[in-house]
Specification:
Elements (H helix, E strand, L loop, with lengths): L4 E3 L4 E3 L19 E6 L13 H11 L5 E5 L10 H19 L4 E7 L1 H9 L25 E7 L18 E4 L24 H9 L3
């Protein structure tokens, strides 16, 4: 399967052969142990995202045996419109806040790839404004919910190209993958295909999350 990925500021179009992974319906089960909330990249196909979300969810299922996992696909355009990331930001915060209220013991793993990383960044209070397909913050997770976010898994995060990273209360729970040469997260990077290779990091991301839940 060939993936077509378009990113506004760099006008990138790339393709890569990907193995399609099966993933459950991207909807949160009633009060699972852990809800995996995934924000896909720009125009990324798949249930939670063919490049990152689906393989990461599969790796988490294999790693977190004995835990009941559910998934949620952030509902946003993931396109090149100026408000796309902001819409994802609002939806992620609404979903996690609602789940936290309904399920007092549920914890969360946030997953964001490319534009989806902007969505997650904004939701935890790190502005992606000025980054490729970024936006100003429109909503943040309530302070009372923050301790229930077990891990934040980011891939090809555009704010990295601005010299920014996740700081503050989420820093120790965040792993942020930026492939060498990826022009979306590395200032001056010139390897477009590097941005499409994060499936290879799914296992490492799951390993990291397992140390936090």
């Amino acid at each position: 399967m060939r993936i077509r990925l378009c990113l506004a500021a760099l006008s990138l179009v790339g393709g890569a052969g990907l193995t399609t992974l099966s993933a459950p319906t991207a909807t949160a089960a009633t009060c699972s142990d852990i809800d995996v909330v995934a924000a896909r990249g720009t125009f990324e196909p798949g249930t939670l995202g063919a490049i990152v979300g689906d393989p990461v969810y599969s790796a988490l299922q294999q790693k977190l045996t004995g835990r009941n996992l559910s998934s949620y696909k952030v509902n946003y355009p993931a396109d090149l419109s100026l408000t796309s990331a902001a819409q994802g930001n609002a939806d992620l915060v609404n979903h996690v806040s609602g789940q936290a209220a309904a399920c007092p013991n549920q914890r969360f793993i946030l997953v964001g790839y490319s534009q989806g990383a902007n969505v997650v960044d904004n939701s935890i209070g790190i502005s992606s404004d000025g980054a490729v397909v970024g936006s100003p913050i429109v909503a943040t997770l309530p302070a009372a919910v923050a301790p229930r976010v077990a891990a934040v898994l980011l891939f090809g995060n555009p704010i990295r190209a601005l010299g920014k990273s996740v700081t503050g209360p989420y820093q120790s729970r965040t792993i942020d993958f930026c492939a060498k040469g990826d022009p979306i997260c590395e200032n001056g990077g010139g390897d477009v295909l590097a941005h499409l290779g994060y499936t290879a990091d799914a296992g490492a991301a799951a390993d990291f999350a397992a140390t936090k839940v």
